Each structure stands twice: as C-alpha cells, then as structure tokens.
Amino acid sequence: MGLRERILADTKEAMKAKETARLSTLRLISAAIKDREIAARGEGGDEAGLSEADLTAILSKMVKQRQESAKAYEEGGRLELAEREQDEIKVIQSYLPRQLDAEETRAAIDKAIADLGAEFDPRHGPGHGRAARPLCRADGFRRSRAGDQGSVDEMTA
After folding, report:
1. I need a labelling partner for 152 at 20 to 30 A (CA). Which of 11, 31, 52, 131 fits?
2. Global pTM value
3. Is 22 helix (H, G, I), strand (E, B) or coil?
C-alpha cells in the first residue's frame, strides 16, 4: 500500500472512530497533496501524479512549518496552540520514514568512509556526496544544517 492509499484509509478510519484532531490533520495532508498535484499539472507535469518522494517532501515541509509555528506559539505564550501543532506533527511524522538518530548517523558515515578507503577526504569532492548518501533516510533539514546531531560536514571532519 502506497503512502497516498495509507492516508486515504487512515482518513476513513479516523472518520469512523470520530478522531477529530487526527481527521483534521489527515485532511490537511490530503489538501496539501492535491494542491501540489494541481500545481504540477499546471507546470506540465506528468499525468501519473506525484511520486512517493514528492509526497515525502510535502510531508517534511508540513512538519517544518508546524515546528516553526509551535515555536512561535510557545514564544508568544500560546501553549494550547503550540500543543495542537505538536499533535499535528506526530500525525504527519507517522507517514514519514523513521529518522536516524545521532548514533545511527555517525555509524552510517563511518561505514561510508571505511567503504571508500583511507585516502578519502569527506569534506571535498565526490566523496562528500558518497558519505552523505546513506543519510538520505535522515531528515533533509537536519542533513543540510547543523542541528541537534550536526551536519554531515561536522560529523566527517
């Protein structure tokens, strides 16, 4: 079952179970997907629709937006709204691949460096991309900037 089918099935299940918060988030996800499909058709995109990678990118963007909103609400003292955003993040993340933690990321980088050999400088050239390739499962935002676990550049230095 693809991601889109899972979202549709879970939407029906949330309707039957009368889970209003979850249903609301699933409807937001469906609306974001439909918006992107319409935009793709307008740009002359293929008629087959969006790929799983496109859907994952949409969901990742939605998570980032909600994280920023939750932070703004917390800074503004609107804790109930921040909590609602966090709840939406949990629902959206349930459709994303599991993220690598710092230990798993370090192990993947170490393995890539070992596979490439001792004369490899991961900070320059094509080796950097090969060291980062195992992290494609990792959160794209975390991969490209220093965060809780640091960037690929910091971990390979």
Report:
1. 52
2. 0.67
3. helix
